[in-house]
Amino acid sequence: MGIEVSGKLHTIFETKQVTDRFQKREFVVEMTDNPKYPQVVLFQLTGDRCALLDRLRVGEEVRVEFSLRGREWRSPQGEVKYFNSLDVWSVEPLRTGRRDDPPPLGDDDRPPVSDDTRPELDDIPF
């Protein structure tokens, strides 16, 4: 199941080496779909994906694609608990309206089109 959300990168945690072969890294995204009640949501990256956060900064707008995972755990005493996790597949910056993006071209900024490169016009009405 793939789910996608966007928001502001709120917190980035260090990578944790859980076992010799398993590492995870958590981060928090503030989603402001409803500005009156912003939501801060914890996500996790695992394995090689932990490095995806190395190029991002707190405060940056990001898009996150993830899957919702759940599991059951039984303690040695027989108590059952349930856990959910948001396992991230990709996290990337949203580049809309950033200073380092080139501005859109206006009509005056476009190069002139010569007659040789214009498509031929026909008289078909559609």
- CATH-derived architecture: Beta Barrel
- Percent of residues in β-strands: over 45%
Summarize the main sheet.
Answer: 6 strands, antiparallel
Mean pLDDT: 83
Q: What is the name of the CATH superfamily?
A: Nucleic acid-binding proteins
Low-confidence stretches: 101-110
What is the percent of helical residues?
under 10%
CATH topology: OB fold (Dihydrolipoamide Acetyltransferase, E2P)
Task: List how many beta strands DSSP finds.
Answer: 6
Q: Number of helical segments?
A: 0
CA radius of gyration is 23 Å
- Structural class comes to mainly beta
**CATH class descriptor:** Mainly Beta
The end-to-end span amounts to 41 Å
Total number of domains: 1
Order of helices and strands: EEEEEE
The geometry reads as globular
Description:
This protein has one domain (3-96): Nucleic acid-binding proteins (OB fold (Dihydrolipoamide Acetyltransferase, E2P)). Strands 1, 2, 3, 4, 5 and 6 form a 6-stranded antiparallel beta sheet that branches. It has strands at 3-12, 16-19, 22-31, 39-46, 61-74, 80-93. The protein has no helices and 6 strands. By secondary structure, the chain is mostly beta strands.
Notable traits:
126 residues; mainly beta; OB fold (Dihydrolipoamide Acetyltransferase, E2P); 6-stranded antiparallel sheet
